[in-house]
Design goal:
Strand order of the largest sheet: 3-4-2-1-5-6
CATH architecture: 3-Layer(aba) Sandwich
Helix content: 40-55%
Oligomer: single chain
Number of strands: 6
Structural class: alpha/beta
Distance between the termini: 39 Å
CATH superfamily: Decaprenyl diphosphate synthase-like
Shape: globular
Order of helices and strands: HEHHEHEHEHHEEH
Strand content: 5-15%
CATH topology: Undecaprenyl pyrophosphate synthetase
Number of helices: 8
Length: 252
């Protein structure tokens, strides 16, 4: 890959010498595995396998670029409605990915975390997650945040219930605040996403990080996830760097 393709453009905003930065937190909706498989006459499981394969170079590239957190939408609360054979294949792929890739992620100093109701996953998946988290717990270069059995609405309900469990016995009259909710989300302690990438061209956020995406820049590509590569990642980052982020305010 040539130098220009590997290095995202650092855009000078022209205002007091400000220069656009690499996003601290990138969130990705990895969409299009099924369509990718259908276009090739393959079953959906092969599309998901290709999608898992596509994730590895994206994780490595994000770490190399200095991204602090990469959150990927791996399995939503709504995905349980898919055929059982497909759901089982997804859990098998997760276990395989964690078993094979955790040593290399550890070597790259990537810490594995999860968001979502992981306690409802099959026992083998829970065990693989626990092992991967334990083995990478001390790594500080980047967080790979896997959204598993995750839904934005479900997360908000669980956050409020955690807050109620913590504070209602102490002070029944206390009101919930935005900061209190943020402190009880699955992503507590992590910066909100700066950039949301969605592959496959769909124009929706699909119940993903509803609270955290409040001011994220959104980049949609028609590329199906198994074909998404580091060059596509750089296109998304370049687009992000060219935007003027005002967070509801104005720039002089």
């Amino acid at each position: 890959m040539d130098t220009d393709a590997r290095q995202p453009i650092m855009v000078d905003s022209g205002k007091r010498g400000r220069v656009a930065k690499i996003p601290r937190h990138i969130a990705i909706i990895m969409d299009g595995n099924g369509r990718w498989a259908r276009q090739r006459g393959l079953d959906r499981a092969e599309g998901h396998r290709a999608g898992v394969k596509a994730l590895k170079p994206i994780v490595k590239e994000c770490a190399a670029l200095g991204v602090e957190v990469l959150t990927v939408y791996a399995f939503s609360t709504e995905n349980w409605s898919r055929p059982q054979i497909e759901v089982n294949a997804l859990w098998n792929l997760l276990v395989e990915f964690l078993r094979l890739e955790t040593p290399e992620l550890k070597a790259e100093r990537v810490r594995i975390q999860t968001i979502g109701n992981v306690g409802a996953l099959p026992a083998r998946a829970q065990k693989a997650i626990e092992t991967a988290k334990r083995d990478t717990a001390e790594q500080t270069r980047m967080v790979l945040n896997l959204a598993l059995n995750y839904g934005g609405r479900d997360e908000l309900v669980r956050a409020v219930n955690r807050w109620l469990d913590e504070y209602r016995p102490v002070s029944p009259e206390r009101y919930v605040t935005a900061s209190a909710i943020a402190e009880h989300l699955d992503t507590a302690g992590l910066p909100d996403p700066d950039l949301l990438i969605r592959s496959s061209g769909e124009l929706r956020i699909s119940n993903f990080l509803l609270w955290q995406l409040a001011y994220a820049e959104i980049y949609v590509t028609n590329t199906l996830w198994p074909d998404f590569n580091p060059m596509e990642l750089h296109k998304a980052i370049r687009a992000y760097q060219e935007r003027d982020r005002r967070f509801g305010g104005l720039r002089e």
